[in-house]
């Protein structure tokens, strides 16, 4: 239901992605569904701002930068994740890509590069383009468990 509503919002905006990027892990399931809906390729990008107990670096530091080139060439890219929580993920990618290509990112971001999440936290420091569920963690700090996440057996 969430993916269908987001796909319809994107179609209503008359914007069509050339391809979709699903952010691992939470964005892969909705990105796959949206990729089928738009009949466009799907690329997965490993990205995680959580610290691992096994390594001393943030894994998001290695986010792929090749989509920045495509965006600078005016290809339309839809980034999909499960939630826009604090905004750190989206802002990190935006800043990283802006540093890779010194073109006018203010005219590319939200035009050629758009972001869709199933859930948007209104208290986030990032602005996204499409979402289905709005929450405000500054009022009710909740944890969302998605159907594809591991459950205790």
Provide structural commentary.
With 153 residues, this protein is of the alpha/beta class. The chain contains 4 helices and 5 strands. The protein has a 5-stranded parallel β-sheet with strand order 2-1-3-4-5, sandwiched between helices. The longest helix is centred in the middle third of the chain and has 13 residues, at 88-100. Mean pLDDT is 85; it is low at 54-60.
**In CATH's first tier, which class applies?**
Alpha Beta
Large-scale geometry: globular
In CATH, the topology is named Rossmann fold
Number of domains: 1
What profile does the largest beta sheet have? 5 strands, parallel
Class per helix and strand makeup: alpha/beta
The strand line-up of the biggest sheet is: 2-1-3-4-5
Q: Please report which band the strand proportion falls in: under 5%, 5-15%, 15-25%, 25-35%, 35-45% or over 45%.
A: 15-25%
Task: Report the uncertain regions.
Answer: 54-60
- The helix-strand sequence is HEHEHEHEE
Radius of gyration: 15 Å
Mean pLDDT: 85
Total strand segments? 5
- Percent helix, as a range, is 25-40%
Provide the CATH architecture: 3-Layer(aba) Sandwich
Kindly, what is the distance between the CA atoms of the first and last residues, rounded to a whole number of angstroms? Answer: 26 Å
Q: Number of DSSP helices?
A: 4
List the helices and strands and how they pair.
Layout lengths: L1 H11 L6 E5 L4 H11 L3 E4 L20 H7 L4 E8 L3 H13 L12 E9 L8 E6 L18
Parallel strand pairs: 1-2, 1-3, 3-4, 4-5
